[in-house]
Specification:
The chain is mainly beta and 150 residues long. The protein has one domain: Jelly Rolls, CATH 2.60.120. It contains one helix and twelve strands; from the N terminus they run βαβββββββββββ. It is globular and about 35 Å long.
Length: 150
């Protein structure tokens, strides 16, 4: 997992794959006020899902096998829980077509605010979209760049 504030990050100094760096460059250069919610293909091995939603009080962990997630907070705030995949138990088996498996487990939580990003690898089971103040859900706009690794 990598997490930082995008505008303060020198992408060239991040120790990660070049495809992930291209995903971060896309996030840094994009005016999201001009990009509608939905799936946007960026290349043969990369796309972005732009979404607007209200945070929730809890969720299952999720994990992916074929893609790395780069989750970027366009606006709003949320908690993202992260734990090692091997420390979890499957609650919904892996769906190869959707590249997702749902899991239960315990993790550490990171507060994410407008401008923050998090890179999540296949070993990083993650629980996004959680309200920081569980009694007061927040409206979020987020971009999730999916980088194919397989």
């Amino acid at each position: 997992m990598i997490t930082a504030r995008l505008k303060n990050t020198d992408i060239n100094n991040i120790d990660c794959d070049d495809k992930i760096k291209k995903g971060l460059e896309f996030l840094k250069e994009t005016d999201f006020s001009k990009l509608e919610d939905g799936k946007h293909v960026l290349s043969d091995d990369m796309y972005v899902n732009v979404q607007t939603y209200t945070t929730k009080s809890d969720a299952d962990f999720e994990a992916h096998r074929d893609y790395v997630d780069i989750q970027y907070m366009i606006s709003g705030e949320e908690l993202i829980g992260v734990t090692n995949y091997s420390d979890c138990k499957t609650t919904v088996p892996y769906d190869r077509e959707k590249d997702i498996e749902f899991l239960s487990g315990k993790g550490n939580y990171t507060e994410m605010y407008t401008g923050d990003f998090m890179v999540l690898y296949p070993d990083d089971a993650h629980k996004p979209s959680i309200s920081i103040d569980r009694a007061n859900p927040a409206k979020v706009r987020k971009a999730v760049v999916k980088v194919k690794i397989q």
